[in-house]
Design brief:
146 residues, mainly alpha, two-stranded antiparallel sheet, 3 helices, 4 strands, 7% strand
Amino acid sequence: MTSRTPQGRPRLADAGRGRPLRAVPPNPTAGEITALRANAQVAALRVEDWPAYGSVDWLRLDPQDPRVYVATLEAAEIHRITEEYRHRTAREQAAQTLRTAAEERAARKGCMRTREPHQLTATPGWPPIQIPGRPGEYLTYQETSE
């Protein structure tokens, strides 16, 4: 998606060099499609070099100069990649936290249950209760005369 220049600043891949991409890979993500589109736009504009978005050099460019657009596109791509990474790491951290909590619960109780099992009992006026793990079997309330 991006490459680094000798100055260490990330750049859009290829920047118009190499063969143009005409096919989308199988099962692409929205981010991959966005990156492909950004690279195709840079290639179509045939811009080889551009200043960093928001820099003094960028501000001095004529608004009609394609380098203004390419620098803006590059900044948007870098932001998209950064946000994608941030969201991915947040999801991974949340999943790890849940796994750790479940493991601690299991170690304390000796099983993965969060509460003790209880006995199902049918109640008058309520519909039958399906018995978990036994399809088609129900508990129904039956009055007993004693």
